Amino acid sequence: MKNLRGKAILDDPASTKSTAFTREERERLGLRGLLPYDVADIEKQKERVLGNMRCKPSDIEKYIFLNALLERNQRLFYRTMIDHMDEIMPIVYTPTVGEACKEFAHIFRRPQGLYITPEDRGDIVSILTNWPEDDVRVIVVTDGERILGLGDLGANGMGIPIGKVALYVACAGINPAQCMPVMLDVGTNNLSIREDPLYMGYPFPRITGDAYQSLVDEFVQAVQTRFPRALVQFEDFLAPNAFKFLDLYGNKVRCFNDDIQGTAAVTLAGVYTSCRITRKKFPELNIMFLGTGSAAVGIAELMVEAFCSVGLTRQQAYKRLWFIDRKGLVVSSNETIKPRIKPFAHDHAPCGFVDAIGEIKPDVLIGATGVAGTFNENVIRKMAAVNERPVIIALSNPTSNTECTAEEAYKWSDGRVIFASGSPFDEVQYDGELFHPAQGNNAYIFPGIGLGVHASEARLITQNMFLASAAALAETVTDHEINLSAIYPSLSRVREVSLAIAVAVCRVAVDEGLTEKGLPDNLEAYVGFLMYEPNY
C-alpha cells in the first residue's frame, strides 16, 4: 500500500478500502470522522455494488456505473467482477463495450490509459515516462480504425484497451499496476465522430503511409526502452495493418494480435471440443469460413498448424479449409484472391454459399464477417442436411453484427446444432428442450497468454503458444458441459482456464528456448502464486 493518509488514501483507487477500514486503521491512518460508523467488509460492499448496478435501466448505464467504481475502488471492482463473471463481463466488455465506444466522448468521466498522437513524434519515450508505474508487463494498444464490427471510431476506441486490461486483471490475475491501455490517436476518417463537438481525439483525417508506419515503429521501440518486459497486444487494427505489424514485429519483440491469434486459438479450441460431441476425428474435418478478413485468415492459418501437428502434410491441411467471400466459394480460378487466401483457394467450380455447403459438406462452419444475418435459414438448414450435428460458430461482435442468433441456429437445425458465438446469448428453449449456447470469447485465451509470458518472461510469443493454449482450453471443458453441447467452459471458471493456459505457455517458452528464467517444476503453483487477488 502506498504511504498515504486521511482523505488521500480514500481517494486513491488502488489503496482505498472505503468503509472496510477497521477501527484501528481509521485511527492510525487519520480516517476518523471521514467515514460512516459501520465497518463494512468487502462482501457487504459487493452486495451494495450489485444492488446499485442491477437497478440501472440499461447496460450502458451499468457500464458507466462499473467504470466509475473502477476509478474509485480497484479492489472492490475486480472482486465483484471475478465473483460475478457471467453477469459482469458482458457489461465491461462484449457486447456493451461496443456501445460504450460509440458514446465514449459523451460518457467520459476520468482519463484512463495513455494517448499518443502524431504531434508526439520524437517524444514517445518521454511520454511513456509520464506513466506512473515502472513495471508494466501488459500493454493493449489500438488505433481505433476497426473497432469490433463498428469500423473507424478514432479515439473513442480507447474503450477497447481499457476493457481488455480489465479482463487481463479479472481473468488472469495480472496486477492492475502492471497493465496499460494505449490509444494511438492518429486521426479518424469518420466525419460524424470528428465533427462531434464533444469528440476528444486528434481532430484530423487519419495519417497514412510512412507517417503512420514511422509513428508505430517509434511506439514499439519506445516500449522496449521504457518497459522492456512488457508484451504488446495489438487490438482492432485494420486487417492489412494487423498482419503487417505481426510480420514486422512478431519475431523481434513480445507482441501478438488478439483479433488474429487470440480469435484463432479460441476457435480452434471450440473445434477440438466439438469432436467430443460429434465423435468425429479432428484430422478428418472439413472446415468452411464465411469472410476473408483478419480473424478468418488467422483461424485458418493456426488450423493449418494444428492439422500438421497431428500428421497431415501442409498441402493436406490446406485442403481441409475452404473460404466463402461475397462472390461465393473462393476457388483457384479467381484472379483477385488476397495473397494470404491463395493457399486456401482450391480447384473447384465457382458456386454460391449454400451450394458450396452441399458440395464441400463442411463439418464446421465459421463466420467472421461482421455482417448480421449472413447465416440465414437456408445456410443453417443446409448445414443440418449434410451433418447429423452441424457445428456453427458465429464469431462477429457485437451482438447486432452476429451472423445468426442462437435461437435461429437451434430452430433452423431442429435443435441439432452445436452452436457458439462471439457475443453471449441467453439460454434457448426449443421443442421442450433447454439449450445453453457457448460463447467463443477471446477472454479465454489472451489473459492466459499474458500471464504465461509474464511468468516465463518469454522473449517472443509464438504460434506454438497459441496451439498449446487452444489445447489447454479444450481440455478444461468438463463432461457435464459436453453433455450440454457446450464447446467452451463456463466463464465463471475463466481464471482456472487462464492458469492452465499460462502453464502451457511457460512450457512452450522453455521448449523453444525463449526464456532464461529458471522455472520451478511445479509450474501451476508458481503461476498461481503470481495471480493478483483483489482482497482487502
Helix content: 40-55%
First and last CA, distance? 11 Å
Uncertain parts = none
Global geometry: globular
Please, how many domains?
Answer: 3
Count of beta strands: 14
Q: Name the CATH superfamily assignment of the largest domain.
A: NAD(P)-binding Rossmann-like Domain
**Average pLDDT level:** 96
Largest sheet: 7 strands, mixed
Q: Under the CATH scheme, which architecture of the largest domain would be assigned?
A: 3-Layer(aba) Sandwich
The CATH class of the largest domain, by name, is: Alpha Beta
Radius of gyration: 23 Å
Strand content: 5-15%
Strand order of the largest sheet: 8-7-6-9-10-11-14
Kindly identify the CATH topology of the largest domain.
Rossmann fold
Treating each run of at least 4 consecutive H or I residues as one helix, how many helices? 24
Produce the secondary structure layout.
Blueprint: H1 6-11, H2 23-28, H3 42-54, H4 59-72, H5 74-83, H6 85-92, H7 96-102, H8 104-107, E1 114-116, H9 124-129, E2 138-142, H10 159-172, E3 179-184, H11 191-194, H12 209-226, E4 231-234, H13 239-249, E5 255-257, H14 258-278, E6 287-290, H15 294-309, H16 314-319, E7 321-325, E8 328-329, H17 353-360, E9 364-367, H18 377-386, E10 391-394, H19 406-412, E11 418-421, E12 428-430, E13 433-435, E14 438-439, H20 446-456, H21 463-475, H22 479-483, H23 494-511, H24 523-530
Helix pairs in contact: 3-5, 4-5, 4-7, 5-6, 5-10, 10-20, 14-15, 14-21, 17-18, 20-23, 21-23, 23-24
